Amino acid sequence: GRHLKGEPSGCGLLFILNFVSFSSGFCWANSVERKIYIPLNKTAPCVRLLNATHQIGCQSSMSGDTGVIHVVEKEQDLKWVLTDGPHPPYMVLLEGELFTRELMLQLKGSSRISGLAVAISKPSPAQGFSPGLKCPNDGFGVYSNNYGPQYAHCNWTVWNPLGNGLAYEDFNFPIFLLEDANETQVIKQCYQDHNLPQNGSVPEYPLCAMQLFAHMHAVTNTVTCMRRSSLQTAFSLNPEEVCDALSDYNVWSTLKPINTSSKIDPMDEVIIVATRIDSHSFFWNVAPGAESAVASFVTHLAAAEALHKVPDVQKLPRNIMFTFFQGETFDYIGSSRMVYDMQMDKFPIRLDNIHSFLELSQVALRNSSVLWVHTDPVSRRNESIQPQVMKLSLLHRGQSESLCLQSQPLPPSSFQRFLRAKQIPGVVLADHRTSFQNRYYQSMYDTAENILMKYPEGLSPEETLDYVTDTAKSLAEVATVVARALYQLAGGTGNTSAIQADPRMVSRMLYGFLIKTNNSWFQSIIKQDLKGLLGDELPQHYIAVTTLVNTTQLVQYVLANLTGTVVNFTKEECLNPEKTPNPEKEMYVYTWVQGSRDPNSTSRVPFCVQSTVHLTKAASPAFELKQWGSTEYSTWTESRWKDIRARIFLVASKELEIITLVVGIAILILSLLATYFINAKAHVLFSSPGDGGAVAY
Amino acid sequence: MTAAVFIGCSFIAFGPALALCVCTIAAEPLRLLFLIAGGFFWLVSLLLSSLVWFIAVQIGGSNNASVKKNLLIFGVMVSVLLQEVFRFAYYKLLKKANKGLMTISQEETLPISVRQLSYVSGLGFGIMSGVFSLVNILTDSLGPGTVGIYGDSPQYFLSSAFMTLAIVLLHIFWGIVFFDACEKKKWWALALVILSHLLVSGVTFQNPQYEGSLVPSYIIMMLMATWAFFTAGGSLRNLKLCLMCRDKDFLLANQRPR
Hints:
A: alpha/beta; about 20% strand; B: 9 helices; membrane (chain B)
């Protein structure tokens, strides 16, 4: 055969030969498709999330939304898109600086927009950016019309004043984030080559266009989509569920080991230390959460390590439970579930066992090393709570200021869920006195730069892992304060000056959770053969709908490594602890970790770690109780989708398409006529003088 | 480029073939059989030539662009030669089959003449060849994008369709001339057919300068059309008679008692 362009004859041939030759070659996109489309690979979509009453996020049509690209670099460019441009609908490429609420509401109302691509702004916008709510988790904390009504709905303090609530709006067009500056440049180049008006005249076809696929299956709210999913599972042979509840696992560990199969003694007292480990942003699975989550739980982990090093810690009168809640960003999924389990007696510890509560909220951006202690003014009026709280606050004298104002409410924190169930003395430590210091709360810009982590140039990954940043030193100070306070709260009577958090460990954790999880330390503390847990791209801390996201697993392994002990078991004994007789087996959890690599060889030396780290389910009780419209518990679900991708290409004018169609039909009709004519006259046309009329045609 | 372009290009490329099938093949079962068999023979030739090309690429394979281009030219030449070999093989098969059919049906004349066979086999080859060259391109023409973002010509779909049209018609004419040459042992005509096939395939290497490939192909197609017309028994006299609607007189004049 002949080939139209100097290219192989396409996938058809290779397919035939595949099973003959076992070499798969490159049958991904065929060569014509590669000529037409440029796929955009480094993008993050905005997906649809639903709760009991609303749907938020973005939606595209079933077969993607296409539009002519227009680059908006300043406000005036928007006019072309909204009114002037002659080729609607447009696909807007927006600079990150312009991604504001005002602009988005303008786009939302227009029918000339078929989609939006936001180019991430480097460096982060100077005025701050937070797509979260001004009042995070409002209505699911402790303040309501029945409890501290003057504090409800952020009437007293607006915690996130920069919050524009964009992530909680509903858009009917797809919005994608362009994470790679090179791809953004490719799109801008295509725009400049084809879409720019030349000398004020209208740009001519072919024009550069973009297509975004992000069709979401769920609609309206959680009640509707869960109802539809349950109908599918009940009645269909091939159920097509439309949404999934956001759920994962909480990680918790106790200072003194407890038997998890039974409840602890009602007289035993436990101090709960809590942090959240998740975050969110406008785009799916983009949640660096440096200040909002990572710094807090890293400090928590460092404090846990410091406490475990104290020699007489097993003899303390009270136990300490280090809890890492997942899903707090979405109306306190993890903490509401734990409180529910405690109330339903499904957890070894009951609410009555809780002596006090200490929570680490955002702690990385301390102004002149000041740490603020937040308390709940309503419960403090209770006679029994007040002294405990004052004791907690006083423990921080010398390192921080105590908030003696009687009337400042608690910031959004897991402690609020515990207060909803029972009035417990507790404090929340934060770096902000009133509103957040974090100007990028729950946004894609809440990265290592936001907490001022700076590394010198030219370091190798190993050196960067071990380099101690100033942020790490600051967080280690906080961890030291917390550890000492906990020791005294738990009834410890010794000298606390020996309790010190290790800044090097804090720095390693910050590197691992904010820059690269695939580093040598993380590799040495995880289980063997866990592919896919450690990656090279920036770590994200979104709860997602799959169980056990990377963050939860890594927190579990790090906690086990920092608070556990190495025991001399073989692999068999470690993986099957119930086989060897030992009364203490039930109190501990054994993990076979792969260990660090020998510098000379390529193999690792694995060993067994004994720890008290457990996982409990962090799924909202609303889904257990099937109360999908609940206002009491979190009802957040994530829609399902089939295909999410983006690509750019050129589009031809409608006139050219119609001309092609008309030419085709004309040729068909012409050939039909000609064939009929020739066929009718064939006996005449093709007879030679000798044949006569007897030729068989 | 959406459905309009898809339909337009399919009609451009396969309109005449469709018309020919509808008007001349569909009513006659024997012709349909031989059409499909002809298509199958072309497919087998394609399979063999792709095997040859694949092996050549594995042996000589490097990422050098000029080596790849040379391998492609080699592959194209081998494919053309294999197609003509299979055309010859089909001719031989048809002769044998016709003899067999004659003994079974106990008639005195051949149920289908060699001339008709040549036309039908040419059409079979042409349709299959057209399908294989255009289908991949047609499926991509359904999408919203058109060729051009890397700087290629946006007339890609249209030119492919016109080229396929030329090839389909050319296969018909080649078939007619080829079989006639085999019947009458005119080896120079055979060589000329093979040469023109090689020429048309070679000219496609001019792409993306579509004028460079389409114009010569259409010129060759016109030339082959006239040659096939004369080979099939046509003459200028017959053509003039038909066009001036004096065919009825001609028939009456030539009618002999059966």
